[in-house]
Design a protein that fits this description.
- Strands 5, 6, 7, 8, 9, 13 and 14 form a seven-stranded mixed beta sheet that branches. Strands 1, 2, 3, 4, 17 and 18 form a six-stranded antiparallel beta sheet that branches.
- With 231 residues, this protein is mostly beta strands.
- It has one domain: Vitelline membrane outer layer protein I (VOMI) (Vitelline Membrane Outer Layer Protein I, subunit A).
- The longest helix is centred in the first third of the chain and has 11 residues.
- 5% of the residues lie in helices and 45% in strands.
- It comes from Petrolisthes manimaculis.
- This is Vitelline membrane outer layer protein 1.
- Pfam families: VOMI.
């Protein structure tokens, strides 16, 4: 009885225990349409001898909206490193079949991801063309906002510089945010931004789960919702 009561309390608080006793705190978007599509598996940053790894970089998969059946966002990757700053792996969940991966954008100065929000094109009804998640932004521990499409949030006044990093034996181009003297306009505006949701104080994002709708004859919405997990 006590075990059941504790489990219900953890689920009610958005907490779940996976792997080797690690407790994760789930944070959910407030505008996703996860009732459309299939849930992928939760994928977590790999622990190392230097302790639990956490997410510090973002990459967004996007299909341009010039297709007959628009899908927009198709997946999200988060790149992880451990307490010594060593890159351990990347995490992703269910991936849509369409689009291309945008740049890899990283939190500056050794920062980590601690929150996110989605930009979602609302459901268009029976005869409309849906493409759901059109963009994602993540917040870094120093207040920097990384934009999945453009790498910067114009309200945080950043520019970017390139840097090569190795992940699982491959070399990828990462982009670090830097201070910028004036804001830039964000491009490709569709849908509405939700509200930022954050990990509890002192916690870091270390896992992801996505919902994707695909495989329909008529209308696929692509990426429809995202959940992040904090440690």
């Amino acid at each position: 009885m006590r075990t059941s009561t504790l489990l219900l309390a953890l689920l009610g608080a958005g907490l779940c225990r996976l792997g080797a006793g690690q407790l994760y705190d789930a944070i959910y978007s407030d505008n996703g349409i996860g009732w459309r599509g299939s849930y992928g598996n939760q994928d977590n940053c790999a622990d190392s001898s230097n302790g639990a790894a956490y997410a510090y970089a973002l990459q967004f998969k996007y299909e341009t909206l010039d297709k007959l059946d628009k899908t927009g966002g198709n997946s999200v990757k988060l790149y992880c490193k451990d307490g010594n700053g060593t890159i351990t792996n990347y995490v992703t969940s269910l991936e849509g079949n369409y689009g291309d991966w945008m740049g890899i954008y990283t939190c500056p100065g050794g920062g980590f991801i601690n929150g996110f929000r989605l930009r979602v094109f609302p459901d268009q009804g029976t005869f409309g063309d849906d493409f759901a998640v059109d963009n994602i932004e993540v917040s870094c521990s120093d207040g920097t906002i990384l934009n999945g499409m453009d790498g910067i949030n114009p309200q945080t006044k950043h520019q970017t510089t390139g840097e090569s990093v190795k992940v699982e034996g491959g070399v990828m181009e990462a982009v670090r945010a830097r201070l910028r003297s004036s804001p830039e306009r964000e491009t490709r505006l569709n849908g509405e931004w939700g509200t930022f949701v954050y990990c509890s104080p002192g916690m870091k994002v270390a896992g992801i789960r996505t919902v994707v709708e695909q495989g329909h004859i008529s209308d696929d919405a692509g990426l429809t919702d995202v959940t992040l997990y904090c440690i």
